[in-house]
Amino acid sequence: MPASISVMVSPPRSLFVGVTGASGAPYALRLVEKLAAADRRIDLCISDVGLDVVAYELGLDAGGREGITEAFLARADATGVTTVHRPGDLGASCSSGSAFPDAAVICPCSLSTAAEIAVGSARTLIHRAASVALKERRPLVVLPREMPLSSIHLRRLLELSEAGAVVLPPMPAFYTRPQSVGDMVDFVVGKTLSLLGIEQDLYTAWGGGSG
């Protein structure tokens, strides 16, 4: 039987956010921005490849890991509520089940990361945090970004779903009649927040057609 995510009595007050090397840095930025605005505590880990993607896709003209991360958090206005971890820091508090945040989000999630999580790997802090979320039955939301998907990808994503994760491919809807890329990013981030039980005003839920 597939595992189930524990039902939270209240929305998460603390979250682990992992950012991998898949395309989709604007999703990560907007998510962290909205979590910070909602006064959530964030444990942030950006993978080595993710760091390059974040710098390129967001146009962050800063050198090195610390510079790029600082620029990312400054743009998200999230410096004061965020603890930053390096991907190799497997001794971080968020790698322990007894000190793990209330929920975890991998945004965006590369398919190689999804595969590592599905087989129980703990090569990096992102892998370990996702593994802890699953074993502790904490909400885990992964936003896989790749196209097309091979049978291997689909099997790994099915395994994650069966283990209790929510697989949320960042697929913008058009019933909201988006007028910009930002609108499409907001739809995906809004769906993510809703799944976590966090109030959001980034999109309006479908209310039925006009006939």
Task: Write a structural description.
- By secondary structure, the protein is of the alpha/beta class.
- It has a single domain, classed as Rossmann fold (3-Layer(aba) Sandwich), CATH 3.40.50.1950.
- It is built from seven helices and six strands, in the order βαβααββααβαβα.
- The chain has helices at 25-37, 48-58, 64-76, 111-118, 125-135, 151-163, 181-195, and strands spanning 14-19, 41-46, 82-85, 103-109, 140-144, 166-167.
- It has a six-stranded parallel sheet, with helices on both faces.
- α2 (48-58) crosses α3, α4 packs across α5 and α4 crosses α6 (151-163).
- The longest helix has 15 residues, at 181-195.
SSE blueprint:
Elements: E1 14-19, H1 25-37, E2 41-46, H2 48-58, H3 64-76, E3 82-85, E4 103-109, H4 111-118, H5 125-135, E5 140-144, H6 151-163, E6 166-167, H7 181-195
Parallel strand pairs: 1-2, 1-4, 2-3, 4-5, 5-6
Brief summary of the model shown:
By secondary structure, this protein is α/β, with parallel strands linked by helices.
**DSSP strand tally:** 6
Outline the biggest β-sheet. 6 strands, parallel
CATH topology: Rossmann fold
Going across the major beta sheet, what is the strand order?
3-2-1-4-5-6
In the CATH classification, which architecture applies? 3-Layer(aba) Sandwich
CATH class: Alpha Beta
Helix percent reads: 25-40%
Please, how many domains? 1
Helix/strand class: alpha/beta
Q: Tell me the series of helices and strands, N- to C-terminal.
A: EHEHHEEHHEHEH
* Overall 3D shape: globular
Query: Which stretches are poorly predicted, pLDDT < 50 over at least 5 residues?
Result: 4-9
Give the N-terminus to C-terminus distance in angstroms.
40 Å
